[in-house]
């Protein structure tokens, strides 16, 4: 299994292109289930999660192929097999995004129940109860959720938490339900607005996506379309944090500052300068970072996905930082890896106390998930000596050519 070697101490300079958002591309792929025909998704990142979602679509009867390096064509089958087996769901948790569209299109969906993962338990109760409100019924047998719907009917659903996945599933199911669906306390992430834009292009009637109340007027028919995926705010935040850790001056081409306001404000408190310009985001860092306190929240708050990146940078900031993870209780496995590099971080429940040390020292560490892996890259870029990151395949799930992109701006990083 390949690993990454990062040699710290080299400032970054140049430009990095930001890809389309993983967490939008995966849901747009799921949305193609809603109507047969050929879709063209532009600005799709070439990452393993996208390939695996392609495998899931292939299993249900659709065909995906790259028509150019960033355009994914999906031919949604005329006859679909509404089943996603355990072997695929276990690899690709976002397969649960197929529940809503399969119920809408086929009237049934049989999807292996995803288990827990490195973040802890990942329940989907809100997906199921929301779809039940639209008339679906579910039965869990032998680890598979069997869903049925004899015609979905619009309803008002108040989510108990603004879950990204539950909002998306409901939105997808509601597009062809009869009558009006209102999703209250909806997640407001830019990827949800992107999904709604895609659905509206297909002929759906969705209002308010990106706000807490989404209204969907069901339509009789949808059609395949072309669409450009929104830029990946988490990938952009990753490279922001790489510059914060290594120092230097970089432009993140295509990054959307309006999707990253909370991250930009916080990294500014840490002493990093960030400005939007016509190309994207300009970022400059020099000298030691300052400590900062932060906690994760649903969008527009600081995303849970960027906390590991902040923590890696704050590990060498001047002073003590306090960080709280409010979304996923078990998302701290990277802390032990940062400790191997000399970080002084204590964990108390879902809180972290980060005592900034002068410098981290490169060590052998292990990536436990996508963002944990990226945080070790951030740490390694500012550390003394070599950091060997094992299980780097986790990083490939969410980042296209991370090592190559960083090398091109002066980092010393290679895959072994
Ligand atoms: N939750 C429930 N019940 C549900 C659904 C969610 O209790 O039915 C809880 C979760 O356990 C969690 C919170 O609600 O505590 C938020 O979960 P959410 O549903 O919003 O997350 P998700 O849809 O499972 C997506 C991203 C994650 C990202 C989260 C939060 C995708 C494929 N995944 O997950 O991204 O961390 O939203 O923003 O879109 C990543 O990219 O590395 C990643 C993990």
List its salient traits.
416 residues, alpha/beta, four-stranded mixed β-sheet, 14 helices, 32% helix, globular, binds uridine-diphosphate-2(N-acetylglucosaminyl) butyric acid
Overview of this protein structure:
It is a single chain. By secondary structure, the protein is an alpha/beta fold. It is built from 14 helices and 24 strands. Strands 22-23-1-24 form a four-stranded mixed sheet. The longest helix is centred in the middle third of the chain and has 14 residues, at 233-246. The mean pLDDT is 96. It binds uridine-diphosphate-2(N-acetylglucosaminyl) butyric acid. Residues 22-23, 26, 94, 122-127, 161, 163-166, 187, 303-305, 327-328, 370-371, 398 line the site of uridine-diphosphate-2(N-acetylglucosaminyl) butyric acid.
Gyration radius, to the nearest Å?
Answer: 21 Å
Q: Please give the alpha-carbon distance between the first and last residues.
A: 9 Å
How much of the sequence lies in strands comes to 25-35%
Bound molecules: uridine-diphosphate-2(N-acetylglucosaminyl) butyric acid
- Helix proportion: 25-40%
Kindly state the number of beta strands. Answer: 24
Mean pLDDT: 96
Largest sheet: 4 strands, mixed
Secondary structure class reads alpha/beta
Low-confidence stretches: none
Shape: globular
Strand order in the largest sheet: 22-23-1-24
**Oligomeric state of the chains present here:** single chain
Number of helices: 14
């Amino acid at each position: 299994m390949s690993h990454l070697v990062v040699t710290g101490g080299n400032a970054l300079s140049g430009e990095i292109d930001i890809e389309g958002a993983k967490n939008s591309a995966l849901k747009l792929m799921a949305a193609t289930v809603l109507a047969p025909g050929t879709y063209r998704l532009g600005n799709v990142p070439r990452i393993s999660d996208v390939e695996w979602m392609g495998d899931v679509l292939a299993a249900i009867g659709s065909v995906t192929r790259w028509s150019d390096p960033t355009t994914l064509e999906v031919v949604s089958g005329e006859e679909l097999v509404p089943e996603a087996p355990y072997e695929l769901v276990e690899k690709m948790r976002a397969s649960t995004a197929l529940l809503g569209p399969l119920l809408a299109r086929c009237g049934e969906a049989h999807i292996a129940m995803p288990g827990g993962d490195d973040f802890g338990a990942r329940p989907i109760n809100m997906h199921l109860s929301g779809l039940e409100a639209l008339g679906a019924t579910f039965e869990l047998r032998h680890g598979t959720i069997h869903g049925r719907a004899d015609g979905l009917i619009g309803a008002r659903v108040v989510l108990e938490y603004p879950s990204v996945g539950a909002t998306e599933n409901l939105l997808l199911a509601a597009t062809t339900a009869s009558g009006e669906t209102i999703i209250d306390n909806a997640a407001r992430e830019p990827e949800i607005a992107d999904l709604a834009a895609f659905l509206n292009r297909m002929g759906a009637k969705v209002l308010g996506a990106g706000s807490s109340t989404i209204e969907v007027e069901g339509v009789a028919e949808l059609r395949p379309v072309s669409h450009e995926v929104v830029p990946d705010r988490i990938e952009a935040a990753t490279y922001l944090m790489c510059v914060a850790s290594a120092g230097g001056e970089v432009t993140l081409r295509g990054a959307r500052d309006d999707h990253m306001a909370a991250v930009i404000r916080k990294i500014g408190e840490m002493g990093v300068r960030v400005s939007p310009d016509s190309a994207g985001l300009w970022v400059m860092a020099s000298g030691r970072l300052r400590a900062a306190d932060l906690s994760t929240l649903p969008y527009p708050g600081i995303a849970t996905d960027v906390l590991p990146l902040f923590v890696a940078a704050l590990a060498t900031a001047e002073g003590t930082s306090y960080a709280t993870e409010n979304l996923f209780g078990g998302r701290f496995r990277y802390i032990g890896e940062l400790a191997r590099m000399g970080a002084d971080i204590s964990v108390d429940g879902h809180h972290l106390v980060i005592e900034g040390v002068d410098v981290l020292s490169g060590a052998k560490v292990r990536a436990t998930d996508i963002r944990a892996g990226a945080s070790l890259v951030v740490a390694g870029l500012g550390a003394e000596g070599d950091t060997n990151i094992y299980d780097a395949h986790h990083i490939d799930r969410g980042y296209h050519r991370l090592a190559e992109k960083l090398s091109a701006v002066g980092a010393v990083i290679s895959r072994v």
